[in-house]
Design a protein that fits this description.
The chain folds into 2 domains: 99 residues, Alpha Horseshoe (Serine Threonine Protein Phosphatase 5, Tetratricopeptide repeat), CATH 1.25.40.10; 72 residues. By secondary structure, the protein is mostly helical. Helices cover 76% and strands 0% of the residues. It has 8 helices and no strands.
Amino acid sequence: MENTLPKWSVEITSTFTAAQVTKTLADVASNLSAVYLELGRARDALDHAKMAVDMVPKHEKALFRVAKAAFLLGDFDQCQERLDVLPEDPAVKRLAADLERARNKHASKSKKLGAALLEAAGEGREYVEKPPPEELPTFFQEIVQSVTPTKKQVILLCVLAVISLSAMFLAPRRYLPQAVMMSLLCSTLVFAVYTALTMEEEDKDDAKKTK
């Protein structure tokens, strides 16, 4: 932040003492702090009020403006520290009441946030220790699963295809249509029987697991 104090032109005459000049500079800095507070520039107000307090430590107006600017910036500890050294007057009492309300509100929010974090942590532990049950497959998923062949079924289909092709190649040309039909029928029958037996075994395994 640019310091505005060096821009001031103060002529020191023999009638002014060093203490009077310092008090005048502190008053100017304190008044600038008041202007910045009116403009909503709390950071600038705090800097100029502190500047005044550095020059005149017991400057009450500057101390009050430090407290007010600190309050607006959320520095509640510094605000309380400055209020403690100020004499009680209506403005100081109002700021002290505002500070107490702000602290209570902040404490309430912190308590709610802590409770929410603990609850979230508890839910996370429960999820890790006891994962949610798996969702049951939908109707369409069941259809797809039932249609999709297993590894053994694929192998069986390949074997049947090889046998059928071999039979068609080995069969005489005049009996080729009959050979194709017989190969298809036999392959379909073998595959159907194998699938039925496999499904029966799976049903038995499922029944044992449920028991």
